[in-house]
Specification:
It contains seven helices and no strands. With about 240 residues, it is mostly helical.
Length: about 240
């Protein structure tokens, strides 16, 4: 006689609803657009002078409107995900933290967007309240957000909650690269090239998560984790 020790397994491969898919897809497009439009500094003078040069470029506002929209849409997606029972406990905790981090990053992007209004305060290349804020924003808002994306992509991808192992690689590389560039940009140009790597990685992560979710919606049987048939030996 044999005894089946398994109870029905709860699905861990999350099938996203239409609203969450739309939010993630919109966030990916806006994030990529914002990065593509972001002005570059002229590479001369100190970091404050380089910031001043960027603030005067006409692409500043459209680029940061795109980034503001991206952060806001990511926040919406995380809000929609945080209560989903299909998520593994560790993934759910990360999502809940990311709701707060992403909301704070979105809020910080508003004065970041409007920074050109205070460009005159750093025209002499000297530090001011504006340059200090921009440093804090990059290091304490953008970098933690990107690291959170990397962690979420890794954990959720490996567990199959959001995406898969391929999306985990894209998000982890993208988030870590973006964080490294953001945390160092106020001090050095050495890692500026990682913004492009990070931006593309995060964009591809979000779009690939959407693609996997859309595929699972069309093939619901693949979204279920089937329990293994484990049996004991003869029982008395």
């Amino acid at each position: 006689m044999t005894t089946n020790l398994d109870s029905p397994a709860r699905s861990r491969r999350l099938t996203l609803d239409g609203g969450t898919i739309a939010a993630l897809a919109g966030a990916a497009v806006a994030f990529n657009l914002g990065g593509a439009l972001h002005p570059n500094d002229n590479g001369t003078g100190n970091k404050v002078a380089q910031l001043h040069h960027m603030l005067l470029q006409s692409s500043w506002y459209p680029a940061h409107l795109g980034l503001l929209a991206a952060f806001a849409l990511f926040t919406v997606a995380f809000l929609r995900l945080r209560g989903r029972p299909e998520l593994a406990p560790i993934t759910r905790r990360i999502v809940r933290v990311m709701v707060v981090v992403s909301a704070l990053t979105t809020s910080a992007m508003v004065p970041h967007l409007l920074a050109p209004l205070g460009a005159d305060s750093i025209a002499d290349g000297r530090s001011s309240a504006l340059s200090v804020f921009m440093t804090v924003d990059e290091t304490l808002a953008d970098a933690p957000w990107a690291l959170g994306i990397a962690l979420l992509a890794l954990v959720a991808g490996v567990t199959g909650n959001l995406g898969n192992r391929l999306t985990a690689v894209l998000g982890t590389v993208g988030g870590a690269s973006f964080a490294a560039a953001a945390v160092t940009i106020p001090f050095t140009d050495a890692l500026d090239g990682l913004f492009a790597v990070g931006g593309m990685g995060i964009t591809l992560w979000a779009l690939s998560v959407v693609a996997v979710a859309a595929y699972r919606r069309r093939h619901p049987d693949l979204a279920r984790v089937q329990p293994a048939d484990r049996t004991t030996g003869p029982t008395q």
